[in-house]
Amino acid sequence: MADLFSLAGMQGPARQELADGAVLLRGRALADEESLLASLDGIVAAAPFRHMVTPGGFTMSVAMTSCGAAGWVTDRGGYRYAPLDPLSGRPWPPMPAVFLKLATSAAAEAGFAGFMPDTCLVNRYEPGARMSLHQDKDEGDLGHPIVSVSLGLPAMFQFGGLARNDKPQKVPLEHGDVVVWGGPSRLAFHGVLALKDSAHPRLGRNRINLTFRKAL
Ligand code: MD3
Ligand code: FE
Q1: What pLDDT score was predicted for residue 1?
Q2: CATH assignment of 15-48+100-118+125-213?
Q3: Which residues belong to any copy of the Fe2OG dioxygenase domain (predicted)?
Q4: Which of 36, 157, 166, 176 has the least C-beta neighbours within 10 A?
């Protein structure tokens, strides 16, 4: 039976609690779409997307860059936050004001007033790119939430529990969706299924995900 959301062409309600501490704000970034993308162009001009290598020697299918006081990096030496972009040897581009305002206001709406990210990891998925189930625990204080912003092609996100073997729920994430992951959900296993090939009117064959963190 088609429900009212599907009849209206929507994936679900505007605000949805996915789990304790995990709040999906559908379409929350749409009003800032053009300024987010213009700011992103500036970041990528100074710190281009690159495919990094995991400590185990695998090249990631997701291409990444960062802005802010530090950037997440991986190489044969391990995962860490680095103050300098290893490609340029220079600091990462600063966090654009529109990024910071969206992240702090979305966090506050989800119950995390006072969240002040010092880095944004930018992930670029092309068709076939995926991210296998993992936990984010390279940040210094796991008491802070993470805010994620999805742009471009839709993806099927996998959201599991605190144990790798907990069966993950599948959550479709679309252009403009914002999710705040805090409290008991902060250490949940999560991943992204291989991106299906299609074209987004604004971003072409790409999905961009911004993840805002307090790393330092
Ligand atoms: C749940 N990125 O960069 S964003 C990552 O779509 C990452 O690019 C995915 O996982 C992406 O580490 C997912 C959603 C997300 C981010 C961090 C989380 C969900 C999370 C941390 C804890 C729990
Ligand atoms: Fe993650």
Answers
A1: 64
A2: 2.60.120.590
A3: 116-216
A4: 166
